[in-house]
Structure formats: C-alpha cells, structure tokens
C-alpha cells in the first residue's frame, strides 16, 4: 500500500454566472519534515535477513549431520511422550480431586 500526499491550493472561480466552483492548481511539493519510513523496503530487508539466517542454519546443520551420523534424534517422538505424560498427570489430578470431594462429603455426613 502506497501513501500519497497531495498539496493543493484552491481558488474560487465563477463560471458564466453559475455557482462557485473549485479549481485546483498543483503547488510545489515541500520536503517532508523528519524521516520518511518505507515499510515495504523494511519488511523486504527483514525477510531477506531471516532467509539468509535460515540458509546459514541449514548449512551448519548439514555439516553437523555429516560429522555426527551415529546419533539420531526423533523430536516428534519426544513430543508424543511429553503429551502422554501430561495427559496422564491431568487424569490423575481429576481423579484426586474427585476422591477428595467424595471424602469431604462422607466426612460431613
């Protein structure tokens, strides 16, 4: 999206006895005060930096994988194990709270 600034000077003109009309004549553009930001250029520059960083990381990983072929890691398997443990802990928490509620009810009777 481009931002366009228009500087116009207007003067009233009467045409053949009709209503007043506005006629716009262009004024010379003044230099903007302060720094003008170009967001598209900034975004392209940041995207280029990020892409170069990813390429460097991929190159380093390929070098590391060539030197260390004996060790293989499975991040997906670790996530599944962690999710399983979290689900087990949540289930045990629900059971413990339910047992505490039953015990509290039986004690008050």
3D structure, described in words:
The chain has a two-stranded antiparallel ribbon. Strand 1 and strand 2 form a beta hairpin. It contains 2 helices and 2 strands, in the order ββαα. It is α+β, with helices and mostly antiparallel strands and 109 residues long.
State the helical fraction: 55-70%
Quaternary: single chain
pLDDT average, as an integer? 77
H and E order: EEHH
The rounded Rg comes to 35 Å
Distance between the termini: 71 Å
**What is the beta-strand fraction?**
5-15%
Low-confidence stretches: none
Structural class: alpha+beta
Main-sheet strand order equals: 1-2
Helix count, DSSP H or I runs of 4 or more residues: 2
Q: Given the C-alpha coordinates, what overall shape results?
A: elongated
Number of strands: 2
The major sheet is characterized as: 2 strands, antiparallel
